[in-house]
Fold this sequence. Notes:
Blueprint: H1 2-14, E1 27-32, H2 35-51, E2 57-62, H3 65-77, E3 84-88, H4 92-97, H5 105-110, H6 121-125, E4 128-129, E5 132-133, E6 135-137, E7 141-142, E8 144-148, H7 149-154, H8 166-176, E9 189-192, H9 197-206, H10 226-240, H11 248-253, H12 256-261, E10 265-270, H13 275-278, E11 286-289, E12 299-302, E13 304-308, H14 315-325, H15 328-337, H16 345-348, H17 364-368, E14 373-374, H18 382-397, H19 403-414
Parallel strand pairs: 1-2, 1-3, 9-10, 12-14
Antiparallel strand pairs: 3-13, 4-5, 6-13, 7-12, 8-10, 8-11
Helix pairs in contact: 2-15, 9-10, 18-19
Amino acid sequence: MKKRWCVALLVCLLAATAGCGGRGDSVSFMVFGDPAELAAYQSLVDAFRAVHPEVGVELRHVASQGDYQKQLVTAFSAKAEPDVMLLNHRRVAQFAAQGGLEPLGSYLSKSRALDAAQFYPQALEAFVWDDQTWCIPQNVSSLVVYYNRALFDEAALDYPAEGWSLDDFVLAARALTRDLDGDGQIDQYGAGMDVGLMRLAPFIWQYGGELLDYESNPTRLALGSPEGLAAFQWFADLQVKEHVVPDLAAEQAEESENRFMNGRLGMYLNSRRGVPTYRTVEGLDWDVAPLPQGERSAGILHSDGYCMSARAKDKESAWTLIEFANSIEGQRIMAGTGRTVPSLRQVAESPAFLDSTQAPASGHVFLDALPLLRRMPNLPEWPAIEETASREIERAFYGGVPVEEAATAAISQTLTYFAVDGP
């Protein structure tokens, strides 16, 4: 009897981080990001464990966002997904439509720690699909321009500021693109970005275009509209005409984000998620500026939410983790790491986020952009649509085909994902 008790105690001690003696099995929590981002989530989990030692947490991490999405698709197909996961808002409908996610609206309404009215509506509404709230948003980021202050100083350029235009962006990128050693090859580029529909979208809206032909019951992408093509051409011209961003060979040799961190790229378009990593780069003098604006003002929402699997064995514990992560304490922890623009007003508009002693000094830029934010469509098929369209956008961006041909191909290749009937 004594031997059995000792064995049981030993098992419990070894499994302490898995919640032995708690309400159920350990809660598996899956996130993506580079090492600095992982450290941010580890800080969150450590704080949660201190408050809720009865709930075990198994933190799973995938570095590449692309690999993360692939692993989630495979896990959901095998009904072996994590209990809690981080999902971008534009991917939620895909898994919710398959019955893989637990609706969280009722949990939120009953919570004593969270109040829907405390969230920025842009973030919370992004996770509503089929009249239900599926995830609780951790952040309400926008696309901004990260810029190297030292390179702007060397080029005698004013730092980008509120109200700058698309023309101003191109002029700055030209001045920042340089052959530093006189060998006829560009060593320093003016700008860089991921290439795809997510980056093109805000400029389509700025030109007065739309992503879909109809907001309700869409039948196709609207990239072929005059406004859509004009925005697409401006975007592609950054590479094929202006040569202010790396060409395909240069990008494959060294990604633009790495060039920015290595001090050889003037401006890089990204959301808030790059901040923890950029803070670790010694000697990099950087800040953020608003997205330049065209004929109309528009930005694009970048928001990730904590979501629960419909098959989570211990939903009470899973919700306890989600609830803590989005509490004032949880969001202050993540804000302190630099990873998020908090989705809670109280945290976002406090020194926990607006700390000018840490880069970026102009963190208010993210909050200033909130009135301009639009979001990608909430459709179960949207991840497949976006992936297909992005391949064609990339082809045109790197000079493989004309913009019109790429737009036509993107439209035709994605028709199968839309309903056949119009509105």
